[in-house]
Amino acid sequence: MSETERIRDNYLALLERVRRCGGQSIKVVAVTKTFPASVIRAVHAAGCSAIGENYAQELLAKIDDYRATQVPGDFLPEVHFVGRLQSNKIRQIADVVTVWQSVDRDSVLHEVALRSPGAHIFIQVNASNEIDKGGCPPDQVERLLGLATQRGLTVKGLMAVGPSDGDTRRTAEVFAEVARLGRQFGLEELSMGMTNDLEIAIDAGSTLIRVGSAIFGDRPPIA
């Protein structure tokens, strides 16, 4: 079985998994972190309209590789940046990122507004209160929303990562809290859920999941 066929089958199996938990309208962002550029074309051919990347330099290298083998009629899917953002990297990737999913502090918000005027963003919330995770505290969401509006950015919704320990009850509580914040501020989209907790996220109201290993397999080790 070719790489393209394997990824297609895995992607279709993921869609069936999502459908079984009532998520027919869920958007899938295929997270290609550590995988080669070839998987972008494969998952796009399977019907996935968006990819996600975590690191600026890896994203740039991958896009260069993708474009080097581009043929007429072939186009890049939406690119969602889903990793922790460094202000000094935003300028480098502004022309390839479609959606900034991990905006969590003033400096990042201002730099995105400067380098990508009118950009679509998600505000990342650290509802699990883990010090090693990105995301703003829940009580800072309203302030960041106001800043984003002032700077002309389009806030699509909120983004969250489940607790690192994978505890089912805590994961459900975290996603429920982020969903509550989304409703409070009238935000339509929630980016919650990955391979291991997508069912919990969808049950809480997620509209977008970020999935890598369920589509591409085990991640290659980072060099």
TrEMBL record:
Keyword Secreted applies: no
Domain Alanine racemase N-terminal positions: 5-220
Record-linked HAMAP family: PLP_homeostasis
GO MF term set: pyridoxal phosphate binding
Keywords, in A-Z order: Pyridoxal phosphate
CDD domains xref list: PLPDE_III_YBL036c_like
Gene3D superfamilies linked: Alanine racemase
Protein name as catalogued: Unannotated protein
Origin species: freshwater metagenome
